[in-house]
Amino acid sequence: MKEDNDVRRIFLLNPDQRLVREAAEAGVQVRSARADTRDEPALRALLAEAADAGLFVNSARSLALLADQDAVRRLVRDNRLSPGGGRVPPGALGLTVETLSVHGMHQAVGITARMPYGLLHPAPLTEDSAAEVRAVVTALLDLTGYQYGPAHTSVALTPHGPVITGCRAGLAGDPVPELLKAAGGCDLAAGAVDVLCGRLVDAVRPGRFAAAAVLNPPWRLESAEVGVLPHVRHVSPPDALAPGHLVVHADSPEVAARRVTSLKALVTGDAG
């Protein structure tokens, strides 16, 4: 693929509407198609056509592999990417890792921890542990042949090292993008559009912590809209029928835990 392609055009397979909106706001033209990502032969023709048009695309093999989580786990096991045969002991810290890939280079832009109350970003890891997690995730993406776009990887941190439990192409679900933005200003959707345009992205170092808790409907928003309650950075719309989420920021993991728990009780009216 030529490097002088028009970088204001991207290709989206089974387009995520968050990326479609971000591209529109950035003035980027979107070419899209829908297909079963498990059907590698069908993907080849679509992707070849997009590549011939000068757009940056992944290989059919890579997308088909990342759509099959059993295949991902086999790849991890066969290449010994995780210790202990990939077994996760009780009490292991669950993590999710967001990456943005361009020209086969993978930038880990965020590691989020699953906590008893919800999610915490950045995960409270030592520099060595964070580096080890990033390394094993980027090694997996190299093995899959993933070249362009966002990816979302699940990892369990065990006493023997990080164990990859899943990986898929695409943006993380809410509220992870809001957490990255609240903690350090990293706009995951904007970064995804950039790498799909063939542009490198700069890493954003979080300046604080952000935490999120799930809200089960109904919840009250009269006093919990962004900008009204202190430290609140995002609350799902009040008419949501499915579970939503509350995002707050804090200067430490301990403050984040207290803040998100107390604010959740205020928003839902549940003091228990």
From TrEMBL:
Gene3D superfamilies in UniProt: ATP-grasp fold, B domain (3.30.470.20)
Name assigned to this protein: ATP-grasp domain-containing protein
